Amino acid sequence: MSMLYRCPLCGLALHKQEHAYFCDNRHQFDIAKEHYVNLLPVQFKKSKDPGDNLAMVQARRQFLASGHYQFMCDALAKRIATDNPSTLLDMGCGEGFYTSQLANQIRTQVHGIDISKAAIRYAAKRYQDCHFAVASAKQSPFQDHSFDAIVSIFAPLFVEECLRLLKPDGLVYQVSPGPRHLFELKSCIYQQVNLHQAPQAPAGMHCVDEIVLEKQVVLTEQEALDLIYMTPFAWKFQPEHLAELRAQAKIVVTLSFIISALARDAA
User: Fold this and answer.
1) By C-alpha distance, which of 112, 113, 104, 64 is closest to 81?
2) How far apart are CA 230 and CA 242, in angstroms?
3) How many CA atoms lie within 13 A of 59 on its CB side?
């Protein structure tokens, strides 16, 4: 299996030698004991510890382990598998839940990157079937045209970087919130809830096809709290909102997703 990494400092290909990656300019990046590599140089960081903190990582992992999002993950894997990619990148992979699921279901070479060191450490420790790196999706440490497929699940989509990384016939699979995603939780915060708008294909790309998924689930109080704390809602929820949530006989929440397959426009 070939390594796809390039040096984030000079752009030359990285080569693995025992417990580190090196480029021909002798820049060195050590492999952590959890089997990930940090390819986010300190000068590229906007803060000391960018990305999700450990509390958010743990909340998301606990909620995803409940299986409520599994129907979306299965639909995504099934759609990607129809194109039989040999290499796949999960951009903004977080703690690696989806990354590992895709690797298991599609049986391909899967890489995951995230700017959160806490998330990547968590991922690499648990999922030995993927390659994880601390890295920026905006300046990703991979060689040009390395991937048949790029996945972006509730993460910013850096289009120019995706086009650089994609092989000529590669696709980006973007997962966005559907119209009524988490409608009930939003209703606890806002008097009037605005529905999510359907995503538009970014400049330079077009939508090949789209899958819309939606269902309602009943959550335990702890699952609802984990769901809140893994989203930006964590900053909006006040004690009175949590009290309203706890007072409900059943915590019913709508889960809604749009899976878009995006291809580069013809030259």
Assistant:
1) 104
2) 15
3) 19
> Kindly report the CA angle at 102 between 65 and 145, in degrees rounded to 5?
140
Answer whether CATH 3.40.50.150 is correct for domain 35-264: yes
Please give the chain's pLDDT, 267 residues, in tens: 456 999 999 999 999 988 999 999 999 999 999 999 999 987 555 555 555 677 777 888 899 999 999 999 999 999 999 999 999 999 999 999 999 999 999 989 999 999 999 899 999 999 988 999 999 999 999 999 999 999 999 988 999 999 999 999 999 999 999 999 999 998 888 888 889 888 899 999 999 999 999 999 999 999 999 998 888 777 788 888 888 888 888 999 999 999 999 999 987
pTM of the model: 0.91
Domain chopping of the chain, boundaries = 35-264
